[in-house]
Structure formats: C-alpha cells, structure tokens
C-alpha cells in the first residue's frame, strides 16, 4: 500500500478523534510534541495540516500554551493556510481562535504578521461564500476584539451582528453555533445591544422562534441571545413582548433538555427586569408562574438556580397577583432552597422571598414568615455569607412596613429577629449589609413608642462607658447610602407625635448624634448634604424651644420635610424605569418607611 495513502488515512482518523471532547489533551509544552506538531502543520498534505489544526483547537487552553505556540511560529503558518483550500481556511480560523482567545499578547502578534495582513484576511473572509467560513471568521474577530483594541470599528461590529443573524437561517452546525457567537459578541456591551436593536435583531430572533420545531441547541442559543439583548435595553424588551413569543418561551421551560430550560429561565429573567411588563401583568400569568414554580423542584441545580433568578424578578409584582405564587406552593419550596448548601441556590431563594414580600399584603407576609419561621430568618441574617445576610435583612425591611401589627412580628420569640438585625448592624464588615440593617431598623422605628424605644436601645445601649456609639460610626461612614439610612432611622425615632420623642432627642444629643448631624450639613454627597441640612435645622430648632412649642414646631416641619423627601410609590417606579428597572423603592405616609424590590 502506498505510504501516502496510509498517512492520509491516519491523519483523517486522528482528526476525527481530536474533534471529540473526550479526546486526550495534547501536551504542547513537551519539546518533542511541539516539534511533531510543527512538522504536521508544515506538511503539504491537506489532511495532515487539518489534523494539526484540530489538535491546536482541542488542546490549546492555557495562556502558557498559547505563548509556546506563538513563539514557535504557529500563527505565521496558520495565517498562510488562510489562503489555502476551504478545509485549510476553516481549520486555520478555528486554530487562530484558540490561540488568541482572552490573550492580548497573542492578538498583538497575530495583527503584527506582515503588517496586518492576517487581520485583513480574516475580515475579508466574512464575505466568503461558505457559511462556515463566515461564521469562523466572525468568531475570530469577536475574540480579537474582546482581547485587544483591534476590531473596534462600528462598521465591522455592525457587520458581525448582521452576518451572525443571517447565519441562523443555515442548516446544521453553522446555524446552531451562530446565536452563541452573537451572545459572545454582545454580552455586557450595551452599545452593541442597542446597535443590534436598531437592525431589528430581536424581531428576527423572535421570527425564528415562530418557525416551529427548532433543534435543542439552536433553541438554546436563540433564547440566550434574546436574554442578552433584553438584559439592559427596555426597547428590546418591548420589541420582544410585541413579537408575541412569550408562549414559546413558556413551553421551553418544560423542555426535556436541561440547557434549554436554563436558557428559557434566563430569558424570562431579562424580560422581567421591565417594570412596565410587570405592571401590565404579562409575566404573572399562570403559564409562566406555574412552570417556574415547578422548576424549583428540578433535578438539575443549574435549572433551579436559573429558575430562582427568574422568580426573583417575576415576584416583584405591583398588583394583587402575589396570591398566585403563594397558592402554588412557591413559598414552601423557596424556604427549603434557602436551607441549601449550594450558596447560589440559598442566595437566590432568600432574594426571591425578599422580593415576594415587596408590596405583599399583611396575609401574604404572615404566610411567608410562618413558613420561614423567626428562628430560620434570624439564622439567615447571621449567615456566614455576606450576600445572604444582605438579602435576609432586606427581607426584614420589607416585612415591617411601618404598621404596628406587622412590626410586632419581629418581636416574637424573644425578639430573635431584632437581636439578629442589631448584631449585624453592629459587627458586619460589609457596608451593604449595614445599609439593609439600618433601613430595617428605620422601618421598625416608624412604629409606636414601644418599637421606637426598642430600636433606640439597640442603637444607643444604656451604657455610660460607651464613648463612641456605633450609630455615630454609621453617620460618619464613607458610604453615603449608609449615612442616609442612619439619619432616616434617627428621623423616625424623633417623630414628634410620640410621647417620649423629646426624651429620645435628649439621649441622641447626649450621645453626640445631634452634633454629628449638624456637622453633616457640609457632607460631600449633595443628596445627603441636602437631607441632613433640613433635618439638622429641624432638630436644632426643636431643642431650643419649650416642650409644648417644640412638639408643635417639629410636627409642622416634619410634614413639610416628609413631602419634600418622599414621593409616592409610582414616582419611585418611574425613577426605576429611568435606571433600567434595576431597583424599585417606595415610602408610605408622612413617616419615612422604606421597602425595596431589586431585580436580578
């Protein structure tokens, strides 16, 4: 038998082996292996060079391996193959992508070959007649652009978006991989997401969904692309909703493939960041809610985590539809997942419970707390993971809405919840944890005189030796939101309609709190400075008046001040829309009470 035929057959066989993910990794770092690879790459046999390219694509993973290949001149040879046969072009593009991925140094070496000829060749290959060549050249350019300052031209990126969208129409592997390349291009890039919206990519992707049966990989890719396009840009979300494909996404939640179920959850998570869609009730229909709740029981932890993230957003509902979640058994399963050893599941479960309490009625909050129990909530507040602590404290913040009846809930079981909140505010290293804790205490302080005294005792323990109370430390914090939370807690403690208001003001003055508030007139944060200026003026004037006049003056100033600082909930939601629907806050009545829903 002719030796050439044997070599050819062996090369084809090995190439097929190295195209499998299960193939052993080839060690480039061994000198003999590298020499053998270069020998293959310089062969005149097309199947042999294709084998070399397959080995590079399969085995080049680390930066060290990328550098070794570059130093050996592999990139120069791969660039030469870009002008070879169709098979050599595609193999070379695949290998170049592996060598330059996430590596600015290897990108610079590639671009420097023959004064930029390599980059020009790859750009030209975007126009190739072969769909796979166009796809691979797009992938190469995306990776080059991500790792360097090259390929940043607006025109090239627009072409990339258009070509990848067109490639979705191709049959087979090319059409399956195109949406994943699009996801890589637009991830965390708001400008490109806007550009994609301007060329109707969302509409085109939705049209593909409506075509009927789509294989699982392509369906996963399209859902992930839609998720990324809708993650930040409200106009894309609106375009998605107007395309009437929500029922298809709902069906994908029940798909047999784990990856498709995860992608469907991810797309719902992005779409549900729209306050407008939540207001309209588009995402609280049973066709969405019930499959999501069912996925909380999924055998895959990846699906559970994705479903929880979607649930976190969907439950931030502003109408009377929270009963759907409660009646579906959602709360019980969220409580179970909040006990998980998987930190991602635990954090997202507590986050979902927190958002479920946002704007919930009294019965709904009681149901959540009865399932969760005071002891478990206190345990979550003191969890070893700061992010769990933050979400648990925000949950408490939403549970106590300023009404005496709801505030009473944190005094049950010997005030175990209040004690846990106080401990975290005093000792937590994370400002985010302290912020949520102080807002929770501020809500408790909006209750009756007993509640105010409990918070006062927590913030200013009756210990004469305490020269620097931690409330003073919070007011001096470098975090402006923490300072704001602390001062509004003081505002609620000194509400003039309560019998012991004057006594609390005196205690605050003796502890140096009033002096600190006066000093904060010149706060570096303009919003904080404005708030503290008004507050310090009220308090300082109150303290200089006789008791009866003090109450009358403070009460009149309080109402003016409250109207100045706290808009109705709808206005807060409008501000949330401006900030792309990431946070939703509100206040009620004349007394500042803060509740918070936050999107994933």
From TrEMBL:
Native species: Spirodela intermedia (Intermediate duckweed)
InterPro entries, sorted: ARM-like, ARM-type_fold, Armadillo, ARMC8/Vid28
Keywords: Cytoplasm, Nucleus, Repeat
SUPFAM superfamilies per record: ARM repeat
Domain of life: Eukaryota
Name of the molecule in the record: Uncharacterized protein
Gene Ontology biological process terms, A to Z: proteasome-mediated ubiquitin-dependent protein catabolic process
UniProt GO cellular component terms: cytoplasm; GID complex; nucleus
Pfam name, any one: Arm
PANTHER family: ARMADILLO REPEAT-CONTAINING PROTEIN 8
Subcellular location: Cytoplasm; Nucleus
């Amino acid at each position: 038998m002719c030796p050439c035929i044997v070599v050819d057959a062996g090369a084809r066989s090995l190439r097929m082996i190295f195209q499998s993910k299960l193939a052993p990794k080839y060690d480039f770092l061994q000198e003999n292996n590298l020499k053998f690879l270069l020998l293959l790459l310089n062969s005149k046999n097309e199947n042999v060079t294709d084998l070399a390219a397959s080995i590079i694509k399969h085995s080049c993973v680390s930066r060290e391996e990328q550098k070794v290949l570059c130093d050996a001149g592999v990139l120069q040879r791969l660039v030469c193959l870009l002008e070879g046969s169709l098979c050599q072009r595609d193999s070379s593009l695949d290998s170049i992508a592996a060598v330059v991925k996430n590596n600015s140094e290897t990108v610079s070496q590639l671009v420097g070959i023959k004064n930029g000829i390599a980059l020009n060749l790859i750009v030209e290959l975007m126009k190739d007649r072969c769909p796979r060549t166009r796809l691979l050249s797009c992938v190469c350019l995306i990776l080059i652009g991500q790792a360097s300052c090259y390929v940043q031209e607006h025109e090239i990126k627009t072409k990339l978006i258009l070509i990848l969208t067109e490639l979705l129409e191709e049959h087979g592997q090319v059409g399956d991989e195109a949406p994943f390349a699009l996801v890589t291009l637009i991830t965390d890039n708001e400008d490109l997401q806007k550009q994609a919206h301007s060329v109707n990519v969302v509409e085109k992707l939705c049209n593909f969904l409506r075509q009927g049966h789509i294989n699982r990989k392509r369906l996963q890719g399209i859902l992930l692309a839609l998720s990324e396009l809708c993650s930040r840009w409200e106009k894309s979300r609106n375009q998605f909703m107007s395309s009437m494909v929500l029922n298809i996404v709902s069906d994908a939640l029940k798909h047999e493939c784990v990856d498709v179920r995860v992608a469907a959850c991810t797309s719902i998570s992005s779409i549900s960041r729209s306050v407008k869609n939540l207001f309209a009730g588009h995402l609280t229909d049973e066709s969405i809610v019930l499959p999501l709740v069912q996925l909380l029981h999924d055998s895959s932890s990846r699906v559970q985590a994705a479903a929880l993230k979607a649930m976190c957003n969907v439950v931030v509902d502003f109408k009377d539809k929270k009963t759907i979640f409660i009646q579906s058994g959602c709360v019980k399963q969220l409580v179970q997942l909040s006990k998980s050893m998987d930190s991602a599941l635990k954090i997202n479960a507590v986050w979902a419970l927190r958002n479920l309490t946002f704007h919930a009625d009294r019965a709904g909050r009681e149901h959540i707390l009865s399932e969760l129990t005071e002891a478990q909530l206190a345990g979550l507040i003191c969890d070893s993971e700061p992010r769990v602590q933050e979400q648990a404290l925000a949950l408490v913040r939403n549970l106590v809405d300023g009404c005496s009846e709801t505030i009473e809930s944190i005094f049950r079981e010997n005030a175990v919840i209040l004690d846990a909140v106080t401990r975290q505010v005093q000792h937590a290293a994370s400002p985010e944890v302290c912020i949520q804790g102080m807002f929770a205490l501020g809500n408790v302080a909006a209750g009756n005189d007993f509640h105010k005294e409990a918070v006062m005792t927590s913030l200013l323990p009756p210990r004469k030796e305490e020269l620097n109370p931690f409330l003073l430390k919070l007011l001096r914090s470098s975090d402006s939101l923490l300072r704001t939370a602390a001062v509004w807690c003081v505002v609620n403690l000194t509400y003039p309609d309560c019998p012991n208001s004057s006594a609390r003001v005196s205690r605050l003055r003796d502890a140096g709190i009033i002096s600190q508030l006066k000093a904060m007139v010149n706060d570096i944060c303009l919003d904080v400075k404005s708030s503290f200026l008004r507050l310090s003026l009220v308090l300082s004037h109150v303290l200089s008046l006789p008791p009866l006049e003090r109450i009358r003056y403070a009460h009149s100033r309080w109402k003016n001040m409250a109207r100045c600082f706290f808009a109705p909930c709808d206005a807060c939601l409008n501000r949330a829309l401006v900030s792309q629907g990431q946070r939703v806050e509100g206040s009620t009545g004349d007394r500042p009470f803060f509740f918070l829903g936050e999107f994933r």
